Amino acid sequence: MSQTTLVEPKAPLNWTPTLLFLFTFVAAVVLVPWWGITHGFSRGAVAFFAFFTIANGMAITGGYHRLWAHKTYDAHWSLRLFYMVFGAMSLQNSAFNWCSGHRTHHLHVDDVDLDPYSAKRGFWFSHIGWMLREYPSGVPDFTNIPDLRRDKMLAFQHRYYVPLALGTNFGFPLLAGWLVGDLWGTFILAGILRLVWAHHVTFFINSLAHMWGSRPYTDENTARDNPVLAVITYGEGYHNYHHIFAHDYRNGVRWWQWDPTKWLIASLQFVGLTRKLKRTPDFQIQRALLAMQFKRAQDKLARLPTTGRSQIEAVRERIAHEYETFHAAVAEWAKVKEQWLEEKTRAVIEHWEHASFQQQLREIERRLHLQRRRVRVLHAQLA
Question: Considering the domain boundaries, does residue 142 fall inside one?
Fold first, then answer.
């Protein structure tokens, strides 16, 4: 008797994005070198390519992602209009669809059934494959964006997304080409190549940023920090930080980390175009970093002999002591924070406030920062 194996049928092809990605990629690969060799590209074409590429990228990172998907700050209507228009030009669907899927991704990250672009289903799936077929995990569910559905500007974009996308992708590059006297060269660069580049740069955040890099803040999901990806994704490459502190307007939290989206949002605050920027308290960041350091130290210790070698025993005792100190600092911070909030509430009523609690909190944060240095030394000794 022959045994039959049940094979799960493939999800049906999603023809619109499949043909879009195929034709634009082939057109970019063929037309860009051919036109460059036979005609060359004008400086105006290159300039508009750079402008539209950056505008599309910032509309996704600063608008779709940090403003609308995570509500990390508030923006003036003029900036939101810019994001809405150039977000449509990026051809990554309406803000409704994009943000709904992204919130689902954060809620169910790495779940192979519920995460729309789970990295655990492989590079191809998380990069582009999830859009090529009609997978159940990719079905839009707007119940998680009630705040965005009340936004009239986003409702307009969603309703008229197709004419907006076509108008901006054909109209803007052709108009730019007419202005610089290089109609087709500008269309090929600022229209076709710009679109392909913008697509795959964004898709790298769903794929490579969950596979390549470090996890200094948490190892409970696949998200990685990658400074190389940050350069080409306007700061989105610091993805491990983002997945643990998603409501921070920054991804590159250190001043030296490349995050032009963060710099744009912070700079526009001075001219009134952004406000209410959300920042994760430094204590919470230090706590996450230290927790991961202790976890890795414990993993190293677990692989070493449990007895003997006095140096290892000394390091083991020091790590245990540092861990107790860490928990004491966390408890102290929580207590001081609670007292500070109570005083702040009373200060609002009585119109006075003391700064002593804030000084205590900063002192605890400073101690955690010094403790991170000590634990780093212990890691080196274990190595």
Answer: yes
